[in-house]
Structure formats: structure tokens, C-alpha cells
Amino acid sequence: MQQMRYTIDKNLPVIREADVIVVGGGPGGIGAAVMAARAGARTLLIERYGFLGGMAASGEVHPFMPSHYKGESLDRPVYTDWVARIHSYLSDETRARIEADPKFNVSLKLGISKDVAMLAAEDLCLEAGVELLYHHWLADAIIRDRRIEALALLSKSGLSAVRAKVFVDCTGDADLAAMTGCECDIGNAEGLCQPMTTCFKLSHVNREAFQKAGGRKRMNELYQQARASGEVNCPREDVLTFNFYDDDVIHFNTTRIIRKLGTNGEQLSEAEIEGRRQVREYLRWLRRRVPGFEQAQLHSMAHHVGVRETRRVRGIALLTREAFDGRARYPDAIARCNYGIDIHNPGGGGTERAHLEKDEFYEIPYGCVVARDVDNLTVGGRPISVDHAIHSSMRVMAPACSVGQAAGMAAAMAAARGCAPKDLDGVEVRKALIAQGAFLEEL
To answer: Which terminus of the chain has a lower count of CB atoms within 10 Å, N or C?
Structure first.
């Protein structure tokens, strides 16, 4: 491949300054920004799109995966506030169904309407006093003596700069950490990442006819036939669906895009095209073969392919599969997780799963959110310092939000004290999170 070398020499206008800057407005970034602001830091949240929510919004992901202990969410307070605010936008009838549900139907209790998720996330940030900067992309970082001095951003206005005392990488792909020279791990032992998925919803589904014909069991039998005949070309082993608030709408988290890296721009583009190819194929097949879907039409679809895994930043601590197996506890725990190991096969069909019981969880220690190689950087969301297996458990949105709120709290405390996050006592960070309502008290 030919290469071209060029240098940009510009004086960039500094458009914002803050105590804490959070890059990325997905679940981790929402948790980080809201918690940092609630802790008293002047907080700026930078988001590349014109809305917050991450995969809950642009990725069409539904529902939130539960991470509970004896029926109570482990992910207080920001995540639970977000869910409650989402519910506040729903109709009286839908809220009544949610409150009356005796079996904890996850599609109902933790359902996601992506547009409502955007509104609810923005509500939380604005009410906490977070300053929002939409439509700005991270372009570069200015580093001196292991510290980030400023970020260069790209927008319709061109290049500009922002400054802060402490930064939080909530980009999902550890873009800021990688840009600043932090060591990162990628994928499994072979460097392969979990597959991507383009989620979509279909409406005008006759659910009664679907159930009478055998429901999901029959759908999966027909799917195996379609794969064998070549009618559907998707490496996933089955069809994963969820119900939605509306009776005629079914959500599909079932396309599978393998051997693409979400931090490679060209491969990410290819993944978008492949994901939508599979959506078209599923729609044709469902209408033609699956009872109840004869009149189905596309209700909504991800605006950004769902990326499960890319980089993981090396922190001052590293959490491995043994912590899950041993239900590990730490005095400086900053998050708890009950969601199981959930590794979608990076190379094709199959999903590796391991579960925790309702009264079990493992803890994530403070050092996992503190970047080892840059002194004023914490990490929130899925790319924290864990191995491939633990990542598959804590990557889902509820624990990602909790990890984010811990990174935000640490950033706020470090900014206030004029120290590096690595110099904080993780036990103190835990106590500060408990004071804000986090589910980290001794049990």
C-alpha cells in the first residue's frame, strides 16, 4: 500500500475547558459524565453524534441485559436512573404493564426504545450539570510527561481544542487511550474479536399465528433448513429475538458479522454493508417461510453496526476469568457484575456461556479503570483492563454504565485533589460511590 506523509501545523482555538472531559456518550460515558458532575466536577461530555445513548440508541440494542442480585439491580445509581427516566416517557398503559409484570420479563422491564433512550440520557446529563458537545470527533491528543494536556477535535467548524485536568475514555474502542500510547489488548488469544451485529425490529407481525405454528422453536427449525439450502447466509447458530412493548413488533439481535475489526475504518465500513445484507436476507426469508411474518415490515434498524469487542486498555490492575469463577471480592471494588460469560464465536457459529446464580456476582477492582500508561486518564465502559472472558460479561450496558460512573468519580476526585487517579485510594473511591447510591455496600 502506498503511503503519503503530511504534517498539520495549526493554531487551534480552545473552545472548552473543564475539570473532567469524558469522550463518548454511550452507557459508559453517561455514567462517567453524570457521576463526575454529581461529584462536583465541571464536566464536559464530547459525543461524535448528535445524541447520547451509544448502542442503546445508534445500535438499536434491546433490551438491557440484567445484572441483578436477589432481584435488585447491581448498577445503581446512574443506570437505574436512566431506566426509570426511559419508563417516564412511556404511556400510562405500558408503565402499568411494566409495574404489574410478576415474572421479570426482561423485554418489558428493561426494554429500550432508542429515541426515548436518547431523551432520557440527555435529561440525566443536563440535570446533573454536564456540558454537552455534540458532533465533535476525537482527532488527536496532546501529551507531555505522561499527561494529556489537550484534545484536538474535528467538527463542521474544523479543528479545535479542549482542555481538562483529567480525561475519561468512554469511546467503547479505547480510541483516546490508544491515541495517547496506552498499551491495549485486542480480542482473544488469536487476536480475534467477538462478531458484530446489526440489530433490527420488524412490525406487523402476527404473534398469535407465530406462536400457534410453534414460535421460536419452529422458527429455528426453519432457520436451519434455510442455512442448509443457502436461503440464509449467516454464521449464527440460531435466531435470537426479543419481544417489544408493542405486540406486533419483534426485535432481532441475530445477524453475525465475523472477522471484522471495529477499530479498522475500512473493515467497519464493510461490516455495515454485510450487516444490512443479512437484514435484507432475513426479511425475505421470514416473510416467505415463517408463519406470522407474512406481512412483516422493517420497523427500525441500527444506524451503527453493533461492535462487541475491540481494544482493552491495560490498567494498574487486570481482571481475569478466575475472578468470575471464584466470585471474587475486592476492598476497592468499584462495580459488581452478575451477567454471565457470553462469548459469541469470533470465527462463526456457537456461543460460549457460563452463568452466575441470582445471589452471586463478582467485583471489579478500582485499578481496572485506571490507565497504566497515562497519568490523567481513566477508562469507562467496555474497554477496561480485563481479559477476553471477563470482557464478554461486563461489556453489556448496565455494568458498562457502572464502570463508567466509577471512572467518572475517580476523575472528579483526582481533579479536585490535583493528583493522578492512580494515586487515589480505591477504597475511598468506593466509599464516594456508595455515598452517591452505588450498590457497593458490604453484604
So the answer is: N
Question: Is residue 214 exposed (0-12), middle (13-18) or buried (19+ Cβ within 10 Å)?
Answer: middle
pLDDT given at position 438: 99
Q: Which three cell numbers stand for residue 239?
A: 435466531
For the entire predicted model, the pTM comes to 0.97
Q: Residue count of the chain, please give it.
A: 443
Architecture in CATH of 14-187+310-435 = 3-Layer(bba) Sandwich (3.50)
Domain boundaries, given as residue ranges, for the chain = 14-187+310-435, 200-301
Residue that has been written with the C-alpha cell 483529567 in this structure: 166
Instruction: Give pLDDT tens digits for 309-354.
Output: 999 999 999 999 999 999 999 999 999 999 999 999 999 999 999 9
Distances (CA, A) of 435 to 49, 83, 438: 32, 20, 7
